[in-house]
Amino acid sequence: MKDLLSGVLEDKSIMEMSECFQREKGEAFIYGLGSSQKHACLAACIIERRKKGFRGPVVIVTGDSQQSVEWQEDFRCLLPEEKILSLPVVDMADFSTAAKSMELMSRRMDILGKLIRGECVTIVASANAAAQKGMSSQDFQRLSLAVKIGDEIEREVLIEKLSALGYQRIEQVDTAGQYSIRGCIVDVYPINALEPVRMEFFDNEVDSLRHFSLETQRSIKNVSSVEIMPVGMSEKGECRESFLSFVPAGCNVVLDEPMRIREQLVKLVKENPEAKGKLVTWEDIQVIASEKNLMYLALLLQKVYGGTPDTLISIRVKAMTSYNRQLDILAGDIQEWQEKKQKILFLMSDTSKIAFVEGFLKERNISSEGISIIDGTLLNGFELPGAKVSVVTEKDIFGHQKRKALSVSKDERITHF
Questions:
Q1: Distance of CA 319 to CAs 12, 36, 37, Å?
Q2: Distant-in-sequence, close-in-space partners of 251: CB < 8 Å, separation ≥ 6
Q3: Which of 66, 292, 330, 355 could pair covalently with 253 via S-S, beta carbons 3.0-4.6 A apart?
Q4: DSSP type of residue 11
Q5: How far is residue 157's CA from residue 149's CA, in Å, rounded to a whole number?
Q6: Residue 315, phi then psi, degrees to nearest 5
Q7: Angle (CA) 407 409 410, round 5°
Q8: Cα Rg, the chain, nearest whole Å
Q9: pTM, entire model
Q10: Within the chain, what is the greatest distance between any pair of CA atoms?
Q11: Residue 115 and residue 105: Cα distance in Å, rounded?
């Protein structure tokens, strides 16, 4: 993918977009891009900023969950070394009792922790997920509990703190968000940990810390410290801020199709009036995002409600022809691109498709000059005349393509701190 991402930056407009992306603060509006075109251009911007030493988070807000999935799928191919995380939507009504909701809350709180620490990740959030209010960043930092061996803490004080963090006391811990007490032993399952932790006290001093198995209740390994993150609400049970307030200054926030995001937020409240107090508005999102390095992406030029872009960039791009196995047309286009000295990139999902393209080029006596065949997939191909780059995907040639299921690994769902 390096050929593709370095190639798109040959376009002067995309290079200007990248320069805006490198800023500490600003408000740029980029239009003319859709689907994989904008995914590739933004991926190139991210790589350029990473090259210059930026290690902070990048946040992308989309109109709906399908668009979020598309960003993740293309980024998985374009940015294989970048950690891509999806901000989940949490059912605020019953997350404390439902195991599925607890898992989603665990992922969400883990992402907030990564944001507040400025970790090198890219977060993709649908409008629904971005609009959900949660505890403020100040409460998040204040309520997170760090315990290490040798600390002195009274048991009643620890119980009060765990309750304030939203943890439920039961007889025996069996899932994240719970704790139990047996004499001088306190078991707690932090939502940000892969296994529960057993704290053993000598009087009021933490004498040992070790992870243990839920099934056997036996110790797995000793640790010197543990951080226990809040389950999701403040101690008063109040919903307060958007997750965007956790994004550090100088980091990038991208609002993909801002008009669609705004429409989705209005629709959410209209369909669920009782949820109004639990959701931020478009105006709230726009104000918070404008405090960062904000970039709007859209296919068409449009007015941004409440926005005051300082830079307006139009990018000329052409959608790739849908060949549907009409290889004569494809051969003609390749000849035309080669005459224009364009780079031609074929993206194929497996070795059989790669072999098909190689055989096709050989059979038609097409020169390999400027042609690269890459193992990877994008939603669709495109042509960037300004960069002299043409991208042809498996879907463009065959009318369909094999795409791997987007899965979330265990380490991505809940990670250690």
A1: 19, 10, 8
A2: 56, 57, 58, 59, 118, 292, 293
A3: 292
A4: S
A5: 17
A6: -115, 125
A7: 140
A8: 25
A9: 0.84
A10: 83
A11: 15
Structure tokens at 46: 């991210």
Q: Give dist(CA 295, CA 118) in Å, integer.
A: 19
Sign of CA dihedral 85, 91, 96, 98: negative
DSSP string, 145-212: EEEETT-B--HHHHHHHHHHTTPEE-SS--STTEEEEETTEEEE--TT-SS-EEEEEETTEEEEEEEE
DSSP state letters, 232-268: SS-TT----B-GGGGSPTT-EEEEESHHHHHHHHHHH
Q: What are phi and psi of 150, to 5 degrees?
A: 100, -15
β-pairing, 371-375 vs 311-314, is unpaired
Bridge pairing between strands 58-62 and 252-256: parallel
Q: What is the DSSP letter of 226?
A: E
